[in-house]
Amino acid sequence: MSGNAFGKLFTVTTFGESHGIALGAIVDGCPPGVELCEADLQHDLDRRRPGSSRHTTQRKESDQVRILSGVFEGKTTGTSIGLLIENTDQRSKDYAKIKDQFRPAHADYTYHHKYGHRDYRGGGRSSARETAMRVAAGAIAKKVLAAQGIRVRGYMSQLGPIEIDFKAWESVEQNAFFCPDAAKVPELEAYMDQLRRDQDSVGAAITVVAEGVPVGLGEPVFDRLDAELAHALMSINAVKGIEIGAGFAAVAQRGSEHRDEMTPEGFLSNHAGGILGGISSGQPIVARLALKPTSSITTPGRSIDVDGNPIEVVTKGRHDPCVGIRATPIAEAMMAITLLDHWLRHRAQNADVQVSTPRLPQR
Ligand SMILES: Cc1cc2nc3c(=O)[nH]c(=O)nc-3n(C[C@H](O)[C@H](O)[C@H](O)COP(=O)(O)O)c2cc1C
Ligand SMILES: C=C(O[C@@H]1CC(C(=O)O)=C[C@@H](OP(=O)(O)O)[C@H]1O)C(=O)O
């Protein structure tokens, strides 16, 4: 196992390099009888796709997905779903100059030492191009969850130094940033335009929210839902931090403030982020991701080559000046995959559990 699979009952395995022939995924554990077609996956793939605004990499991929197996007469069969996206716009010559160099903050140095042989074209397997397949698999998970009343959505909550308050879900899909505050978009655009002129990159934060999650998903000890969510979200390229609910702000809170008090009408706050004891509480699950700035920039930086000589690296080519701009659909996908896996596990073990205590209304 080369660490390319995720999940226990609903599992996702991916293959393919950024400049190889194609990317693919094998999705196992999807319940049978789910109506599924390529269009169900394409919407989220289009949201993630490179080259769709001037603020992202200019690599132009249509990311048209094909369902190769696991669907018959428009419905999932319960067997492995095979997915394929062809690469069509590789420009491997961009990487010829840095083939024997290590870009600081990319995976070149670690892949070189781990494997002794690496596909330098586009970073090979280390490229975030791989996340297209997670988004395709995540769209399947979203569809199954939606039938259970569970909805996973995300938005950009910070771009570099610019903090973004949540205003409206409707705004999120109406700009290139997944920004929930339409009034902030011109500031984000101006910041990105200056950043490109500066030949630099910047980090970002993404917030992902799952609503309608029933109480009970998760496991009490090792596979705690928060631990598995952190695993899933941290496995996205360039993610350097995850918060659930209050996250690191909990450090400065007092117990009397942090605890989410309960009334028969529901919880009065959600500092827990919808998870208590590793198990969903029925409140919205809220996670925040910190993404680092892109490593591939044209500002010269010090590094070494494969022979250990000091060099100056300048990475030309087509790169995202802020990788967080395209990360929202990826984060949604990883949350949806994790939740569906736990939803199936919970159903398998606890479908017959009867509790006479009423459940708190969701708010
Ligand atoms: C959506 C997305 C797009 C990315 N685009 C680029 C890019 O254009 N250039 C680049 O150098 N890194 C890009 N990255 C980040 C690299 O893939 C990542 O930094 C690299 O794999 C090293 O892994 P690490 O940052 O997780 O340690 C992107 C990441 C994401 C999530
Ligand atoms: C291709 C995608 O993003 C790529 C992610 C990436 C990286 O290093 O992660 C580097 C760039 O690759 P290339 O130099 O081949 O264009 C991005 O364009 C994609 O997301 O589909």
UniProtKB/TrEMBL annotation:
SUPFAM superfamilies: Chorismate synthase, AroC (SSF103263). It catalyses: 5-O-(1-carboxyvinyl)-3-phosphoshikimate = chorismate + phosphate. Keywords: Amino-acid biosynthesis, Aromatic amino acid biosynthesis, FAD, Flavoprotein, FMN, Lyase, NADP. It is an enzyme of class 4 (lyase). Its EC number is 4.2.3.5. FMN binds at residues 125-127, 237-238, 277, 292-296, 318. One of its GO terms (molecular function) is chorismate synthase activity. Reduced FMN (FMNH(2)). CDD domains: Chorismate_synthase. Homotetramer. This reaction introduces a second double bond into the aromatic ring system. Belongs to the chorismate synthase family. PANTHER family: CHORISMATE SYNTHASE. HAMAP family: Chorismate_synth. This is Chorismate synthase. The gene is aroC.
